[in-house]
Amino acid sequence: MPQYFLGVDGGQSSTTAMIGDETGRVLGSGRGGPCNHVAAAEARAKFIGAIGGAVAKAREAGELAEGIEFESGCLGFSGGPADKDALIAEMFTIKKRVVTHDALIALAGAHAGQPGVITIAGTGSISFGRNAAGKFARVGGWGYVYGDEGGGFDLTRQALRAALRMEEGWGPETILRARLLEATGASNANDLLHKFYTPDFPRPRIAALSQLVDRAASEGDTVAADILTEAAQQLAGITLAARMQVFTPQETAPVAYIGGGFKSERLLEEFTKRLERGGNNTVSAPQYGPAAGALLEAYRHAGLAVTLSNVPPEK
To answer: In what order do the strands lie in the sheet with 125-130?
Structure first.
């Protein structure tokens, strides 16, 4: 009898499911909507629809029968696992079930299930690591008020602060002010500050404006360049802190970078330089995405060590 394994990445913007067989071959994958909250009735319905839809599409892509039983399954969520396990148990038959957080499955995917460290610079930032003994370390991820240094929201915040200082006459000239006003339709930096406090500008929208910092830096704006350099330093700092907790100084630690922040070549170059000169670290892009990482964790939980094959790209 064939055995089936399930991996799910449930995020704030979308859900991805992958089904694999006992050899590590991915049979099918599917996508659904966001599923990070289940507290209210409407949110529960969206959660069930997103997870159920993504798994159904993965099953259909693999030409598998409806209602199949999974030998093992791992599901990772950006909103944490505490309130989701019971719903998963109702939805699917999974002999060995793991419901966890998104950093773990991102780590597993980035390093194909092997030990390593990841640093995520998306809207926020966090570093997460695991060694061969299964010891974990987490650094950062304190949220947009008290942390998330080097993430997209923080980059935009620093750009706005620079624009405000310029406007008030106690900061250097920077094209960031003009670029931010043009992108948002604000009349001045103070007007933009107040716009950012309204529901019209949720955190992801503010974070998306961080690309303006990279563009300004590439055009020679020294203020923007300094913001990116500082961000790279902070991201390298949380990475090294996580690395020190799970690897000895003599060990080589593989580090993978994840998230839109690293699309900035300047930030990535500075981040890589600081890590590679700071010890035995190798820096690279992730091997797989988080859904593949969840699938690898499903195999791991079942006591199987497999090499994935036929892995589709994750968006």
So the answer is: 136-140, 125-130, 116-121, 253-258, 281-284
